[in-house]
Amino acid sequence: MNVKSETDLEGESRQTRHFSDESYSSSLSDYHDYEPQLEFDDTELEQTVDTPEKEETTEYLESPMSDGTIEENFEEELGLISDLSDADTAVANEDIEEEEDFSDIAKYGIVELVGDDNYGRKVIVISACRLPSNKTLNHDTLLRYLMHTLDQYVENDYSLVYFHYGLNSKNKPSLSWLWRAYKAFGRKYKKNLKALYLVHPTGFIKLISQLFKPAISVKFGRKIMYVNYLHELKQHLHFDQLCTPQPVIEHDQQLLDKLNSRLPHSQSLTFHTPLDTQQFKVSLHFIKEHNDGGPIAPVMQQCIKYLDNPDILETEGLFRRSASTLTVKTVQQAFNEGQAVDFVELGDPHIAAVILKTFLRELTEPLLTFDLFPDIISFQRLDKMEKLEVARALILKRLPDDNYIVLKYLLEFLIKVIDRSDLNKMTSSNLAIVFGPNLIWSQNTQASFSSVGAVNHFSEFLLSHFDQLFTL
Q: Which domains does the chain have, with CATH numbers?
């Protein structure tokens, strides 16, 4: 097998492709000092992977029946790891039992949901530094846990962020396990994955990319972005809501110091004095002070007015799909500058849907307020008979008046979406999954999957009991 030297890998890492709405660059910056040591040595590669008799890696033709995500018969073409045992294959294809208890793995926080990105996609973060020792962690159980976790979100567009720093000889999975995992995550996981951010890549990441390259279609390859420094994520994600692990932050600073680099001022998250017409990344109080229509922002009114149309309400997957990243940015800027936006002319209902979710997510304080977060998290554990009374107390007594007005306005519209769920497939449960993390999040702690479940439960309760909570 031809394994490229670290010098070659480092040279390749400095080549940057153009990043646009339809194609991703290999890196978001054109310089990086890769770590000299690989987490895996060459002997493991040689022992695990057989060299294909014929190398045909120049072009990857997609099957007429393929969605362009991955080749259906790549294993046969490559002959890679063809000697996997039946037991290994069974692990990769094993059905996930809903009753399986993953609490022993979930407690490490290896996988976390952190809300939506700038384009309305759910963001899932995987942190290598939180992987426990191989003596503690069963990697086959980890694989089932990863699949169980992703199964909750792969029906919608989503993004993955992988913090690579912290993978070492004590917690690294075997290369054969990586291959099994790659096979296990089939088409349904790859189809709606819109971006894969590999943060702080080392030579090992590049080596694995080359190893798996024949099995990956060009289309899927465009979804992969190498992120050399944390500040590069800011143009695509709500960076301050990522709750990046402290070891990753410290490692990033060391890389910046080593290269005598500073965080580019143009990419800083520091928010300067907003325009009077500002709609995004401001508070409801600011909007009310600068808007004749009260606390309901013009962007929210225009989005809902456009979406509240029978033909659009029947759009399948409304609020579940992302939209053109360039268009979303352009529309946001137009609203912030007080310019007119014609959603009819744009012609894509998903643009207005993403803009509405983004507006809610970028409020300086969530619509349901930081103060209510602890009560909302514990709401799921209440007795069924108590829930309505507690919800009334939270919404009618403790939620500020402006927030109540905006929340009621939003939910009145979402009820109309639910009324057409037979066509748009957006039930109260599906809408709760989409909107829950955009209505409430913690001010100080990272969202866990347990807290996200509680948030979604409360959001669904509001939708299911709208008449009892908002029409008194």
A: 102-262 (3.40.525.10), 284-470 (1.10.555.10)
